[in-house]
Structures are given as structure tokens and as C-alpha cells.
Design goal:
With 142 residues, this protein is mostly helical. It has one domain (7-138). The protein has helices spanning 7-35, 37-46, 52-72, 76-94, 102-128, 135-138. Helix 1 packs across helix 5 and helix 3 runs antiparallel to helix 4 (76-94). The protein starts with 6 loop residues before the first helix and ends with a helix.
Length: 142
């Protein structure tokens, strides 16, 4: 117990909480994107994305569908990797602080490295797996 500082006692419950916290932003923003498609398309066009309709569909599926799947612990490991890639790509597209100055640079730098931290969480979820309280565990997929 001393070696793990009690983590072994709360491991599976902690992984559930971590899964929830890790995808909370994706669920909120995916829901917002789905309910404001034209605004999302305008934003995507503003950051230089082509095929904004396709980009909205991808964003909503990844953020909502994959987010719910991670929340429930379904296909956790492969989806954690996909969400890690998605998150770093969105950081590079949407938070290019290196091209900005002043307050906009600071704001985008914070958001860029927030995304990098989330990527770290997804990599950790990939390595640890979904935990005992997951559909993957019930189906013996983890």
C-alpha cells in the first residue's frame, strides 16, 4: 500500500472518474457543435478548414459518439488512441499560438497545451485500460 499511496485501493473507481473527466469537455463541445451546425461550420471555415460540413460530422461523431463510448468503457483502448490523435490535430489546427501575438497568443498557448495534457490522459487510458467498471471489462475485451 505504501508503494502505491493507496492507488491500488481506488484503482477501478479512479479510472471511472478519470474516464468521465477526460471526455466531459468532448461531450459538452460535441453537443454544442451538433446543436449549432452553422456556427460550427463558420468557425471551422474561419480557422481555414475545407469541407466544413464533413469536418462538423467528424467532430460530432468523434466528440459525442467516441466520448460516450469512452465514458461507458466501450472499445476504450483503440478509441483512446483515436481521441489522442484527434486532440493533437485539433490543437495544431485551432490553437496555433506560434502565429499570434499578445493576449491571443497566450490564450491559444494555454488551449494548445491543455490539448497536449488531454492527449497524455488518453495515452494513459490506453495503457491502463478501462478498468473493472466498463463494458469492455464485462465483455472481457480489456
Amino acid at each position: 500500500m505504501v508503494k502505491t499511496f493507496g492507488a491500488d485501493v481506488v484503482r477501478d473507481g479512479g479510472i471511472v472518474v478519470a474516464r468521465i473527466l477526460l471526455v466531459l469537455l468532448f461531450l459538452i463541445r460535441g453537443w454544442d457543435k451538433m446543436n449549432n451546425i452553422s456556427g460550427t461550420m463558420d468557425y471551422f471555415a474561419g480557422v481555414g478548414l475545407q469541407l466544413t460540413g464533413v469536418a462538423v460530422v467528424i467532430a460530432v461523431v468523434v466528440e459525442l459518439v467516441f466520448g460516450v463510448a469512452i465514458l461507458l468503457g466501450v472499445f476504450t483502448r483503440p478509441l483512446a488512441l483515436l481521441l489522442a490523435v484527434y486532440t493533437i490535430v485539433t490543437a495544431l489546427i485551432g490553437h496555433h499560438y506560434w502565429t499570434l501575438t499578445g493576449g491571443a497568443q497566450v490564450n491559444n498557448l494555454i488551449h494548445f497545451y491543455k490539448n497536449v495534457g488531454i492527449v497524455g490522459g488518453f495515452i494513459l487510458l490506453y495503457v491502463t485500460g478501462p478498468g473493472k467498471y466498463s463494458i469492455d471489462s464485462r465483455l472481457k475485451m480489456s
